[in-house]
Write a structure and sequence with these properties.
2 domains; elongated; Lyase, Ornithine Decarboxylase, Chain A, domain 1; binds pyridoxal-5'-phosphate; isomerase; eight-stranded parallel beta barrel; Ala_racemase_N; alpha/beta; 20 strands; TIM Barrel
Length: 373
């Protein structure tokens, strides 16, 4: 991916906010709880290595990633804490993970059987976290029978496997609607029922994501997988309110690249979807859907020189046009996400415009946009 370092559009990441959020989380949870910083998907768009190092500075017990390559990037950067790949992986990568001391989620016995052979051949041991499917329907063991079989196999092959963790994932911890709370409770009960067949619990028992750590403090386990809230964002969107101490870390900024006066009746953008009703000032800003600033952002208001200004005409691949109330000079700062004085555009405001969740917006900001710390 070519990164646009000669264009004045960038993501600004406040690493102090991330450190602060981890510290707040530590204060709000029991002292015996471990924290795994979830840094998958380039740390939710914030930059995986920089965020992991910031988390390391304030002290976390490990990192969670989605894919092996993310784990390797952290090892390459010199991070030595536990790294767990949350997704299941092809067994042929078991030796690669073992060599780099990368822990993996395991959701079925076939992985263990196949991986055991290749690990034994190379004299390697792989740390594993057994995933339990308690209602998410994604990965994991669903019955005591399956779980017992897996644990027996691991015990039989403890040269090749280190049974390091057991976990599950909630699908409705971010809502207080009755159906959501009931389902959350069902998942807890299922988790307890499944783990009751284990003679000995592994070192890490983890059930909580950000939402559970905020709204279901008694969910159990000894480790929190701390994701979206580490970035200062609310896992529940606008539904439940989050402790006000958490601070967002991301801003998306650009500069006015061109400014022009158009006459009443002139049109702007592909498909001429916008026509000026009077003489207007139009600023062009170098960001577009190729940067993850979606076409659905047409009509949204962004901050230029202290004013909320409407994006007019269609969002192009690389540029947008914005109606400004008066002439502004080329180089004027444009805030697409973040604060300008007292005014603020939250990631959630962008998500509401697009009809999605804040997670998706930050993951969509493409690698073309440089991250500045
Ligand atoms: C992504 C993910 C998390 C983090 O969730 P947040 O809502 O961002 O806290 C935790 N656990 C698993 C299994 C995940 O996939």
């Amino acid at each position: 991916m070519v990164v646009g370092i000669h264009r004045k559009t960038y993501v600004k990441v406040d690493l102090d906010a991330i450190k602060h959020n981890i510290t707040v989380e530590k204060k709000q949870t029991a002292s015996d709880q471990n924290i795994f910083a979830v840094v998958k998907a380039n740390a939710y768009g914030h930059g995986i290595v920089e965020v992991a190092k910031a988390a390391h500075d304030v002290g976390v017990d490990g990192y969670c990633v989605a894919i092996i390559d993310e784990a390797l990037a952290l090892r390459k950067a010199g991070l030595e804490e536990l790294i767990l790949v949350l997704g299941v992986n092809p067994f042929e990568y078991a030796p690669l993970m073992a060599k780099n001391n990368i822990s993996t989620a395991v959701g079925d016995i076939d992985f263990l059987k196949n991986a055991q052979v290749v690990l034994k051949n190379e004299g390697l041991q792989l740390p594993v976290h057994l995933a339990l499917d308690t209602g998410m329907g994604r990965i994991g063991f669903r019955t005591q029978q399956e779980l017992k079989e897996a644990v027996a196999f691991i015990n039989q092959h403890n040269t090749e496997f280190n049974f390091e963790g057991v976990f599950t994932h909630f699908s409705t911890a971010d809502s207080d609607k009755k159906t959501a709370v009931d389902y959350y409770k069902k998942q807890i009960a299922k988790f307890n029922e499944l783990v009751s067949c284990l003679k000995k619990l592994p070192k890490y028992v983890h059930v909580a994501n950000s939402a559970a750590s905020i709204w279901h403090k008694k969910c159990g386990g000894n480790t929190i997988r701390f994701g979206i809230t580490m970035y200062g964002l609310n896992p529940s969107g606008d539904e439940l309110s989050m402790p006000p101490e958490f601070k967002p870390a991301i801003s998306l900024l650009s500069e006015v690249a061109a400014i022009k006066r158009i006459q009443r009746g002139d049109s702007v953008g592909y498909g001429k979807t916008y026509t000026a009703r009077e003489d207007e000032w139009i600023a062009t800003v170098p960001i577009g859907y190729a940067d993850g600033w979606l076409r659905k952002m047409q009509g949204f208001k962004i901050l230029i020189a202290g004013n909320f200004c409407e994006i007019v005409g269609r969002v192009c691949m690389d540029q947008i046009m914005v109606k400004v109330p008066h002439e502004v000079s080329v180089g004027t700062t444009v805030t697409l996400i973040g604060k300008e004085g007292q005014k603020e555009i939250r990631v959630q405001d962008v998500a509401n415009q697009v009809g999605t969740i804040n997670y998706e917006i930050i993951c969509l900001i493409s690698e073309r946009v440089p991250r500045i710390y």
